[in-house]
Amino acid sequence: MAGRPSIVAHRGASADAPENTRAAFLLAMEQGADGVELDVHLTADGRLCVIHDHVLDRTTTGTGLVGSKTMAELAGLSAGAWFSSRHAGETVPELADVLPLFPAGAVVNVEIKNGPVWYDGIGSAVAERLSPWKHKLSLIVSSFDHKVLEEVHRREPDLCLGLLYEAVLYDPVGYLRRLPYPVGSLHVWHHLVTSELVHAAHAAGVKVLAYTADREEDVRRLVACGADGIITNAPGAVVRLLRAEV
Q1: I need a surface site. Which of 58, 75, 77, 190 has the fewest CB within 10 A?
Q2: pTM (two decimals)
Q3: In this structure, are residues 213 and 219 in contact, taking their beta carbons and an 8 Å threshold?
């Protein structure tokens, strides 16, 4: 298939392994994904941990705010027992320990979680952590907090920034042109992706990544629209579908 979109595993291969764990990231690469999307928060001792929610209760054996715990405390929790007993040994990883898991050139989309709990300095912390990896991995830093992306850009101008949104923006490309930093990609709820949006983004030199698409009909529509990337919980299934289309 000409122009096959990149397949980015949402929180790793989260349909088949506990999200945002080493197991999910490694499985995503085994399943043929081009890379992963992961989420980061700032711990009480200023470390970047990989977890989606701002509270621990849903995906770990802990409770309370992620940001109230040190990295050592988080490492003592199971981040996989909720998914299956087989994954009970999975812990909340630190971003520094996750980056070496990926092969050269892999897409690693780091989403900064900033809100409803706000982390002072998280943008600078992410930029500093990713800087040594910018020539080894295909890095994207994304966030629904568009202000924190400016902080990332000030600290590390070479990092690609992804603008996350799920509302129906009147003029997405016009909006990104007004921002005080360059945007490399729009990260759009897959229902809002159209060929017109993709064309306008491409004309502005910006890619379109669609999240989070698992159903075959949604994947086919995104391919037809010309999306540059598909963020999915089921990378193995999407890879098989696209290979069958070749």
Answers
A1: 58
A2: 0.97
A3: yes
